[in-house]
């Protein structure tokens, strides 16, 4: 009887204890006292305190950290820690969003966001900063100076590096200005393509120093040397084969390949993606084939591709050889036909093109031995000339405008008669 009473008492006690525990519902309170501190030039540490007025024995929580850079989000789940380290391209601006999420209390929901932002850098020392990973252990980083300054200095750093910053050992120049840096070292080994390299570019501006910061990953822009291509013929097929890009371990299967070819009759390339380094294509011996290949980094390994390889050719274009004998026969026949037609039409048009010219000697004989005056109209010579259509000049006609003018008569003195003088008698 005592045992039954004891069990009953324990059941009632547990039920009452559970009933007296407050069951809160709704959103969790947000994390408190969020702060940010710099670990070095590229990394920051965010720390916070658990949500206030929340007992971990009643409701356990975890934290979600959403990191936003250029509208690209990365979500990190943090279970027990209350801090978060981040090494990013800070100059582009970073936005951190922290939330509390319930684990074992399904009656609670996510807390409100707690935000911390790092604004982007306003002063741009360089533009178009880009790094190309072209060989195991080697990488070239290039940029365009924002102005004509010559005192730019580049430093780089990667995680687990012994020293805080290492200066660029080999600059690349364009027109006397620093436009790039060549990096080489074991930290760029091809077996670890996830290596993150951080860059600091600074310049002295009066009493202050201006800085730009960048982060690049080796796998983000891989550009190996173009593969070497060989072509062999097997019956009616061409066997294409290429070597893996130099500078990388051939045992590492990092690459896919794309072949392209065209014949002497084609104007456009035909591209064929291929997973392996060997490919076979059909062959027509009447045409010449030109082939190129390039290596493309597999998506699981990174991004990037090589340039097209040097163009390799195989075979000869025999279409021109077949047309040469035909041209030897066709061209003379066409020329002969054209010459015959030309002579025929010239004969038909000879009267118009080359009219018959009268014999001038015959006309001179008629003029010389004529018995009649050729100048007289109606003479036999004139008639013969007219009949022969020899040009005979006409007698010119002179047109005069004649006007009659009336004048007074002039009285002339009458002549003296001798007879009158002799008969004169005095009165």
Describe the SSE topology.
Layout: H1 2-20, E1 26-27, E2 32-38, E3 43-49, E4 61-69, E5 72-78, E6 83-87, E7 94-102, E8 108-109, E9 114-118, E10 126-135, E11 138-145, E12 153-158, E13 166-167, E14 171-174, E15 177-184, E16 196-205, E17 208-217, E18 229-234, E19 237-242, E20 255-263, E21 270-274, E22 278-282, E23 289-297, E24 312-314, H2 319-348, H3 350-353, H4 360-368, H5 380-387, H6 418-422
Parallel strand pairs: 1-8
Antiparallel strand pairs: 2-3, 3-6, 4-5, 4-7, 7-9, 10-11, 11-15, 12-13, 12-16, 14-15, 16-17, 18-19, 19-22, 20-21, 20-23, 23-24
Task: Explain briefly what this protein structure is.
The protein is of the alpha+beta class and 427 residues long. Helices cover 18% and strands 36% of the residues. The chain is built from six helices and 24 strands.
Low-confidence stretches: 14-23, 416-427
| Radius of gyration (Å) | 56 Å
The major beta sheet can be summarized as: 4 strands, antiparallel
Number of H/I helices: 6
- From N to C, what is the helix and strand string? HEEEEEEEEEEEEEEEEEEEEEEEEHHHHH
Category by helix and strand content:
alpha+beta
CATH architecture of the domain at 24-118: Sandwich
Please give the number of β-strands.
24
Q: If you consult CATH, what is the topology of the domain at 24-118?
A: Immunoglobulin-like
Side-by-side strand order of the widest sheet: 5-4-7-9
Q: What would CATH call the homologous superfamily of the domain at 24-118?
A: Immunoglobulins
Q: What's the end-to-end separation, in Å?
A: 233 Å
Helix content: 10-25%
